[in-house]
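Each letter names a residue; structure tokens follow underneath. Both lines appear below:
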Amino acid sequence: MRTSILGLAILAVLVAACAPAQQSTTGRAVFALTDAAADMGAVSSVKVTVDSVRVHNDAQGWVTVTSTPQTYDLLALKASGDTVLLADLQLSEGSYQQIRLDISSVVVVDENGTHDAKLPSGELKIVGGLDVEANTTSAVTFDFIADESLHVTGNGQYIMAPVVKLETRTDADVEVSSDKRVEVSGGRVKTDIKVGMDVAGNVGVGLSIAKDAPLSVEGGKVKLGIGVGEERKANASMKSEVDVTA
């Protein structure tokens, strides 16, 4: 009996050793953010709070990459030249067709103080491919262009309509330091596009708000053209000038 039990045990070990190893079905995905703005004049800080990042494909729908709010000073990133970490995780292998950032707030500091900037939409949904392969690293980099994103209405209110360069790479070399600085090199570039947001909050290649566009905020919404409130102020100012010179 003891010999039979020993034989069965040895057989079980041999069977386990010969069984094929289970293949991994996930790959590492690193999401990072940087800023390549030109000179911002009197603006010294643009702090953007990203509430969440998600990716989408037909098989899984929307997959949460991170739901931890994180705040980044775009102009500090510009000054340092750093690319910083948004998320580092394992994703199921496959192709993802959309990437989404949810932005809850933008705070601008200039020579006159601190101001909340109005977003046409807090949802930055980008149609752009990301391929994740098992046992490799993929990288997603959002490069904000703050000087093309930031606008001012006639009464001095800031509007943030993000303009972003998106790059994704597959089988890349990615290093993340202890202070969350990210360096990406090598691999295969899957997506390399520049997208912008219009006054209605639509996002896509070729969309943006012109730097000299007359903008206003009415009823909590960004509008193209002078708003009713600003028009009244302008008319009052013109009337005052007429009265003085009459």
In short: The helical segments are 2-18, 74-80, 146-149, 228-245. The radius of gyration is 25 Å. Confidence is low (pLDDT under 50) at residues 230-246. The first strand starts at residue 26 and ends at 35.
